[in-house]
């Protein structure tokens, strides 16, 4: 029997997204309790402008939504669909979109935060915490996209016997071997040889350099 696809990619995606949820909650909490002083935002060179703090809240809100959708999508697929299969297309698209959003966000607050620190604004440790966690979340989205791309690449070939039996090569091999007789033993031998042939072809394709 062909070995089913390992679920480690799925659990890795869930784990990364769960860490993102925690880090984004911390980003929002630190910004709200330490850096956002009402009319003042200590993520800015000009603390009178609160737009950078608002940018943090908006990004964290959407980021949490993206991470929770990723967790729910992968978990649902593991629970309901064929083991080892992810809805990779949706996962890749969502993770890639979130990565670019967070990339812009992280670059923005890194520049603004450095300007505020160089100008002597208070809250340096809190700013560095927000900036550092934002970059971790950014690259976590990138890692999720890469894992989903890899999982989709692995799953593009048949990996279990039920799928092998539905493949065109299996049907061709079974027809070509059907002259062995009509007894149950002969039929079992034909099926075994057909599965073996298709599995060997599958393994050969997987081992082929990309």
Task: Summarize the SSE layout with pairings.
Elements: H1 8-35, H2 51-80, H3 88-118, H4 124-154, H5 161-166, H6 168-176, H7 184-207
Helix pairs in contact: 1-2, 1-4, 2-3, 3-4, 6-7
Care to describe what's here?
The chain crosses the membrane at residues 12-35, 55-78, 90-111, 131-150. It comes from Auxenochlorella protothecoides (Green microalga). Keywords: Membrane, Transmembrane, Transmembrane helix. This is MARVEL domain-containing protein. This protein is mostly helical. Helix 3 runs antiparallel to helix 4 and helix 6 crosses helix 7 (184-207). It contains seven helices and no strands. It has two domains: 8-154, Four Helix Bundle (Hemerythrin (Met), subunit A) (Up-down Bundle); 161-207. The chain has helices at 8-35, 51-80, 88-118, 124-154, 161-166, 168-176, 184-207. The radius of gyration is 26 Å and the shape is elongated. The model is unreliable at 1-5, 157-161 and 163-174 (pLDDT under 50).
Structural key phrases:
210 residues; Four Helix Bundle (Hemerythrin (Met), subunit A); 2 domains; 76% helix; transmembrane helix
């Amino acid at each position: 029997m062909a070995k089913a696809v390992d679920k480690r990619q799925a659990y890795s995606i869930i784990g990364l997204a769960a860490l993102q949820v925690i880090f984004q909650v911390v980003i929002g909490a630190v910004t709200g309790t330490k850096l956002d002083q009402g009319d003042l935002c200590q993520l800015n060179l000009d603390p009178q402008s609160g737009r950078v703090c608002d940018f943090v809240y908006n990004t964290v809100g959407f980021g949490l939504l993206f991470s929770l959708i990723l967790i729910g999508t992968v978990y649902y697929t593991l629970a309901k669909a064929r083991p080892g299969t992810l809805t990779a297309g949706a996962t890749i698209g969502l993770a890639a979109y979130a990565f670019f959003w967070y990339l812009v966000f992280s670059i923005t607050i890194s520049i603004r935060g450095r300007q505020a620190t160089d100008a002597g604004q208070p809250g340096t440790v809190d700013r560095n915490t927000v900036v550092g966690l934002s970059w971790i979340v950014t690259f976590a989205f990138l890692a999720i996209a890469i894992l989903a791309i890899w999982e989709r690449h692995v799953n593009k070939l048949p990996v279990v016997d039920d799928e092998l039996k539905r493949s065109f090569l299996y049907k061709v091999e079974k027809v070509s071997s059907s002259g062995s007789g009509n007894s149950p033993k002969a039929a079992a031998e034909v099926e075994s040889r057909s599965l073996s042939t298709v599995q060997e072809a599958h393994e050969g394709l997987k081992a082929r350099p990309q």
